[in-house]
Amino acid sequence: MPFVDIKKKNVTYTIHAVTTVQPDLNLLADQVKLHLYISPNRTTPDQVFSINDTDNWKTSNSEGKNSVAFIIHGFHGAAYEPMFQNIKNAYLSKANWTVIMVDWEKPSRVARYETAVNSALIIASLLAKWISTALVNGYVDASRMHIVGFSMGAHIAGNVGKRVTGGKVAKIFALDPALPIYDKKNITERLHIDDAEFVEVIHTCGNFISFDADLGHVDFYPNGGQFPQPGCLDPRQSTQDVWGLEIITVMVCSHNIALKYFAESIYDEHKFTAVRCDSWREFQTNNCSSTTAPMGYGTTIE
């Protein structure tokens, strides 16, 4: 987890060496639940089943007629948190969508970050197997599948995409992909451009909690892609004015705001218009191309 050196105000990370001890596969499978939603604005799922259970899927997806969106939270997260529920509700506001929220809350809420990283890779393999079975049985169509992953969940999304058989996932939306440990990972174990037909990345706290480097077919950097994002810091202050836990709060707010941006883009696909540019500095000096694209749900690979 990030912390602040109060004297120097430098943000650093304390990450232990990655352990070679792997989490128990059967235990993880029992701890990961898939929350299925078909009805809009429900606070409780229409159905909950195990990541090892595909038997109920056939009767839950109108025999494969609906598009399907998987939503995956990150480290110390949970599917029931409002910021993930907002994305679920946004998808269900559109016709013919089924949403499956991947709830791996218990494995994510561990003390050691690297333990969660190891668990996340196994969970990705389990989910990929589940999706592959659904594809083979015709319960879902990969060309109408989205995987939305936040923070560590973005890398789970990528690792799922790598491992799915029977079709290639249409879109992965990676929301502020986690940086610690993953910046040292090979592309076989983290998000990569080849993990889906289209990979979109939204960066909001780059170089601190999340990646700043391009990872997808399209990478968006709202407000420069770093903290503080608008609304996360008192406008009368600068980052030099905040100390200790306060700066962590600003960083976490900036990290989480990627979820808000994405949810709003589902309701209004043209709410956020981005300009193609080589850097934030170039943008600030009006030295960008004339190419524009909507950030979020409405983006296309063209």
From TrEMBL:
<dbReference type="GO" id="GO:0005615">
    <property type="term" value="C:extracellular space"/>
</dbReference>
<dbReference type="GO" id="GO:0016298">
    <property type="term" value="F:lipase activity"/>
</dbReference>
<dbReference type="InterPro" id="IPR013818">
    <property type="entry name" value="Lipase"/>
</dbReference>
<protein>
    <recommendedName>
        <fullName>Lipase domain-containing protein</fullName>
    </recommendedName>
</protein>
<dbReference type="InterPro" id="IPR000734">
    <property type="entry name" value="TAG_lipase"/>
</dbReference>
<dbReference type="Pfam" id="PF00151">
    <property type="entry name" value="Lipase"/>
</dbReference>
<comment type="similarity">
    <text>Belongs to the AB hydrolase superfamily. Lipase family.</text>
</comment>
<dbReference type="InterPro" id="IPR029058">
    <property type="entry name" value="AB_hydrolase_fold"/>
</dbReference>
<dbReference type="GO" id="GO:0016042">
    <property type="term" value="P:lipid catabolic process"/>
</dbReference>
<keyword id="KW-0964">Secreted</keyword>
<dbReference type="GO" id="GO:0017171">
    <property type="term" value="F:serine hydrolase activity"/>
</dbReference>
<feature type="domain" description="Lipase">
    <location>
        <begin position="29"/>
        <end position="291"/>
    </location>
</feature>
